[in-house]
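User: I'm putting together notes for a lab meeting next week and I want to include a structural view of one of the chains we've been expressing. I don't have a solved structure, so I'd like a prediction I can at least talk through. The sequence is below, exactly as it appears in our construct file.
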Amino acid sequence: MQMAKEAGLHADVLSSVWHRGADPADDLPPLRRAVDAATAEGVDPILAVWQLSGDTPTTAAERAAFAAYTVALLKALPDVHTVIVDNEPNLNLFWLPQYDAAGGDAAAVAYVRLLAATYDAVKAAEPGTTVIGGALSPHGSDDPGAKRQTHSPTRFLEDMGAAYRASGRTAPLMDELSVHVYGESSRVPPTLEHPNSTSIGIADYAKLVRLVDDAFGGRLPIVYGEYGVETAIPPVHAGAYTGHEVVEPVDEATQARYYRQAIELAACQPRVRMLLFFHVLDEVPLAGLQSGLYYADGAPKESARVVRDTPVTCRR
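Assistant: Thanks for the context. Below is the predicted structure for the 316-residue chain, given as structure tokens.
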């Protein structure tokens, strides 16, 4: 949390992974320590509650259990005022099934039900809490016949909107909508637009706003819930890592330039409330994400200074 503050970050997301039979009391000790550390540094703690696909909450009883678990964590963590409901439900890693037997959408319909149940439970118990929905992956195939079944964020938002309207619900589903905005690889800058594809990046703000407004009406604020660019590890820091790299990373300077561009783009997008970098600190296994502002040994990358020093103001 000290590193986050030193890099100029104002918020940090803490994860809690729900599963069938999960007891919030078991998960609270590390969350309390993290929340206390964040508040001590003036960093706003955000709670993200999600599951892996083997524990997808698709029944009414499971949705109620997920919502109750989320409420219990929020009640026990009074310094947390924002919660993200689920993570990348448009990917089969986190949500199954993605499609029904006829090849129609199943994930968006079921996720809307979970989001509605959790929103209502949170607002009844902690009405001042901001509920963020979506947390969508920026890419997906929209192919129900694929071995790895996924939805693109474009199609998933359309399907969410259709499910919301079909439900007859008039209350909101969420207070803000989150999309993860990674490029197709770490070599893709945040300035790349996707006018002819179903992917969504930071430069696709106008397309995203149209999709959100068509799906839900009103003017939902937007959160860029994850953005990251992986760096190569110089030999001086290599001892802090394990395993082997599985993607083609970029150098420190490129990551710093892309992070500056991301901040400058988001600052000029009126509906965007937050841009969250994934991570503060690199993951130790090289098969994971080395997209942090700091190397795994704690040494700052160039991006830590750039993120701290880039004004969050629109210069157009």
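A couple of points you could mention at the meeting. Residues 107-125 form the longest helix (19 residues). Residues 25 and 298 are 31 Å apart (CA to CA).

User: Perfect, that's what I needed.
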